[in-house]
Amino acid sequence: MIFNEDVALTTAELLLKIKAVKLSPKDLFTWASGIKSPIYTDNRITLSYPEIRTIIRQNFVAAIKQYDWNPDLIVGVATGGIPQGALVAQELSLPFAYVRSSKKEHGLSNQIEGEVRSGQRVVIVEDLISTGGSSLGAVNALKAAGCQIQGMLAIFTYNLSIAQLSFEKENCPLVTLTDYEHLIRKALQINYITADDMIVLQEFKKGLENK
């Protein structure tokens, strides 16, 4: 779910402004999966802009309060969610930990880094949600450690139905600052894209849903 309609449009505009999200309907990007895409997202760029990372942090904190979450611990998902989560934890004066995509193959073979105790109430922070697979891997690792998951925060989601259903199945509320629909709507409003580009972007989203 979107945290706030105004926040969704403002965040979308900020991401486009600093090129954390790039839209190129005519000259497609190639994702790591091999998919040819008119959109490329790298929310790590927000960290280079103090004002924008502050806005993101403040909205994450506002969302935690709005949904009456009362975490004992903030956890980031490696790698993009680590710095965002650490900023939220600092703002709330809470402990912080992070979850790797898999266990280390050396040392203590940890998947969770930091002090995590059974029974702790946890809010998880991500930067981007696509299918939700890696994010929910972190949820399951924390559940296995005995944590109570209050919800997950993310900057952006593609709003794919597979992700929505997966989060519902795991009983993990997902709250994002913006999403694909708000992003392309704002892009059209500020003349970043044309009406024809909008159609291409909408069709791409439909194609993702059918993969």
Fold and architecture overview:
By secondary structure, this protein is an alpha/beta fold. The protein has one domain (5-209): Rossmann fold (3-Layer(aba) Sandwich). It is 42% helix and 22% strand. The chain has helices at 5-17, 50-66, 81-92, 133-144, 161-169, 180-189, 195-209, and strands spanning 21-23, 29-30, 36-37, 39-41, 73-77, 96-99, 112-113, 121-129, 148-157, 174-179. The strands form three sheets. The protein has a six-stranded mixed beta sheet with strand order 7-6-5-8-9-10, sandwiched between helices. Strands 1-4 form a two-stranded antiparallel sheet. A two-stranded antiparallel sheet has the order 2-3. The longest helix has 17 residues, at 50-66. The model has no long low-confidence stretch (mean pLDDT 94).
Major beta-sheet overview: 6 strands, mixed
Quote the average pLDDT. Answer: 94
How do the helices and strands follow one another from N- to C-terminus?
A: HEEEEHEHEEEHEHEHH
Count the E strands.
10
Which oligomerization state do the chains in this entry correspond to? single chain
Q: According to CATH, what is the class?
A: Alpha Beta
Alpha carbon gap, first and last residue:
23 Å
Query: How do the strands of the widest beta sheet line up side by side?
Result: 7-6-5-8-9-10
**How many domains is the backbone divided into?**
1
Rg:
17 Å
CATH domain topology: Rossmann fold
Unreliable segments of 5+ consecutive residues: none
The portion of residues forming beta strands comes to 15-25%
CATH architecture designation: 3-Layer(aba) Sandwich
Helix content: 40-55%
